[in-house]
Design a protein that fits this description.
- The complex is a heterodimer of chains A (263) and B (334).
- Chain A is α/β, with parallel strands linked by helices and 263 residues long.
- In chain A, 33% of the residues lie in helices and 24% in strands.
- Chain A starts with a helix and ends in a 5-residue tail after the last helix.
- Chain B has 334 residues and is mostly helical.
- Helix content of chain B is 73%, strand content 0%.
- Chain B is built from 12 helices and no strands.
- In chain B, helix 5 runs antiparallel to helix 10.
- Chain B starts with 24 loop residues before the first helix and ends in a 10-residue tail after the last helix.
- Classes of the chains: A alpha/beta (263), B mainly alpha (334).
């Protein structure tokens, strides 16, 4: 009831949450042998901040997001949100996956309403869904099935499905990874606008250096598996940023150097 | 359209036709075929004296005349007209097949008579014996629907439970593997003395034949649900019940329908065998009875009715699936 009441007045709630990751290590068991994926990762994201995790493919970035979302407990270390230990999934911390993972048997409206339905928010559900669809520019597509959507539209629907719950921490797991270059640019601007409007805390995982630099206030560079923090860079250029901004160009060169790529 | 073409642009010779030309001669041809059937039936002398020859022949004539009358106006009949045009080759072939059948049985007596009755003898069965035939359909439908409903419901619940709860899977899986592949008919002797009545025994057998494929396919559907769907729902605050009812089951539904389809086919087989061997009613029993009295025309009539019944039930199942799985692309059409 309390959650429902706050949801209906999103402006009345505190915006972003503070995320603290304290020396988290994690391993997968691959045929009995442990495969370490995270090595004593610590990071701190201030409320309403936008941090990007950058690293080579398969380094364990996505695992970190799953741990923060509470889908799995970390082997070692603790994760706190606003000082509270993360012990399981919670609608205030939402993941947007690389695949939109919309339910094919539900319309766009049904998909966006999923979180409200799961928590039993009955009153004003339709209005909240319409509002979220408007936010991502899918107003005319409420009654369409996911297979009729383009990749970019499906990802917008996935964003709306998260945003309708007014999350305080949005975990973006390479959300634009499968989109074509032009849609990607449009969606980057969209994510930035949503973040500026809603002031949630954002943690973005990507392997696109430019994407990280254009969107985030802080970029954390991770090493190859097991992922450890290699470097942390602040981006001070004002939004909206241009890809040929001198600071962006300099930071990109620096990051590519850290990742061992020729610049 | 006309007059709006700007100068310099060559007007297209002719607009492409909206519909493919469906020559009315197709319908005329099928009408002629039915009239030919009527002519052969009524005109040629027959070896035996068959009571319904006149009814059969005049029915064919009426159909032939109706087709001829509809041919010129088919284009103006809308959906009915286009269905008529679409089906007319089949009407033609049907009439010709009946004509050949009529010729080699009633007229020329080339086939041994009691085993191969002419079409009018089967028509006679429908006209004279319909109360018994109708009662048999009803009995079969009642037995089938009871057993099928029990089997489908049990299979569905069991499949979901096996796919969801580890403990259920632990105990149910070995039993399912050991007992499931056994044809349901193999239980027949046992079922008929364990159950109090042959009717309850047959219901059990039909349920068994339905339950096994439904269980296995529901289970495989639930087990195969994209794990990310669960992750999405869990982060959104879904309860265990929500994960089962709103995620696992809808995602598994396409598999469930394959199981229901297979189960329906299996249940027909068991139904007929059970009716032939134990139950004293239903189409299987009618078949058996007809054969016992060497009433072969009745047997063919029952076979036709049974084919219609099974096909209609499968159509019904596919309609239900199309309604529930409207979100799926590329469904198999029945």
């Amino acid at each position: 009831m309390v959650a429902a009441a706050t949801l209906e007045r999103p402006e009345a709630r505190a915006a972003g949450a503070r995320l603290t990751v304290e020396s988290v290590s994690h391993a997968f068991a691959i045929r009995g042998a442990p495969l370490p994926v995270l090595d004593r990762v610590s990071l701190d994201v201030e409320p309403g901040g936008f941090v990007a995790l950058l690293g080579p493919s398969g380094c364990g970035k996505s695992t970190l997001l799953r741990l923060v979302a509470g889908l799995e407990p970390p082997d070692q270390g603790v994760i706190r949100v606003d000082g509270d230990l993360v012990e399981g999934p919670d609608p205030s911390r939402l993941l947007v996956f690389q695949d939109p993972t919309l339910y094919p048997w539900r319309t766009v409206r049904g998909n966006v309403a999923l979180g409200l339905e799961a928590r039993g928010v009955g009153r004003s559900r339709a209005a909240l869904v319409d509002q979220a669809l408007g936010l991502v520019g899918l107003t005319g597509f409420a009654d369409v099935y996911p297979h009729q959507l383009s990749g970019g539209m499906a990802q917008r629907a996935a964003l709306a499905r998260a945003l309708v719950n007014a999350p305080r921490l949005l975990l973006l797991d390479e959300p634009l990874g499968k989109l074509d270059a032009l849609t990607r640019l449009a969606m980057q601007a969209e994510i930035l606008r949503l973040w500026q409007e809603k002031r949630f805390t954002a943690l973005l995982v990507t392997h696109d250096v430019e994407e990280a630099l254009v969107l985030a206030e802080r970029v954390i560079v991770l090493s190859d598996r097991p992922a450890a923090i290699r470097a942390e860079l602040s981006v001070t250029a004002p939004y909206p940023r241009h890809r040929d901004d001198s600071e962006i160009v300099r930071l990109r060169r620096e990051i590519l150097g850290i990742l061992g790529q020729p610049t | 359209m006309s007059g709006s073409i700007t100068a310099g642009v060559a007007p297209r010779a002719a607009a492409p036709p909206r519909r493919l030309p469906q020559p009315p001669w197709r319908i005329v041809l099928s009408g002629a075929a039915w009239l030919a059937l009527a002519g052969v039936t009524l005109g040629l002398p027959e070896a035996d004296d068959l009571p319904e020859t006149a009814a059969f022949g005049s029915g064919a004539a009426a159909l032939g005349l109706a087709l001829l009358a509809l041919a010129p106006v088919a284009a103006r009949l809308g959906p009915l007209g286009s269905r008529l045009r679409y089906g007319s080759p089949w009407f033609t072939v049907l009439a010709l097949a009946l004509l050949v059948w009529e010729a080699v049985t009633a007229k020329l007596a080339l086939l041994p008579m009691p085993f191969f009755p002419p079409p009018q003898a089967i028509l006679e069965v429908f006209l004279d014996d319909w109360p018994k035939l109708g009662g048999s359909i009803l009995a079969s439908l009642i037995l089938l629907s009871g057993g099928y409903a029990i089997g489908a419901a049990t299979g569905f619940v069991l499949g979901v439970a096996i796919g969801t709860f580890r403990a259920v899977g632990y105990w149910a899986h070995p039993v399912l593997r050991f007992v499931g592949p056994l044809p349901a008919t193999a239980w027949l002797p046992l079922a008929f003395f364990v159950f109090p009545s042959s009717w309850s025994a047959s219901t059990f057998l039909v349920a068994l034949a339905t339950g096994f494929p439904v269980t296995v396919l529901t289970w495989s559907g639930v087990a195969g649900v994209n794990k990310a769907y669960f992750d999405v729902a869990r982060t959104l605050g879904a309860s265990r019940g929500f994960l089962i009812l709103r995620v696992a089951i809808p995602a598994a539904l396409p598999h469930v329908f394959v199981g229901l389809f297979m189960g329906l086919g299996g249940s027909f087989a068991v139904l007929v065998v059970a009716e032939m061997l134990g139950v004293k009613s239903g189409l299987g029993w009618y078949l058996q009875w007809a054969q016992g009295w060497a009433a072969y025309a009745n047997m063919y009539a029952a076979l036709i009715v049974m084919a219609l019944m099974c096909s209609s039930l499968i159509t019904l199942l596919f309609r239900l699936r199309d309604r529930l799985l409207a979100w799926q692309k590329g469904l198999v059409q029945w």
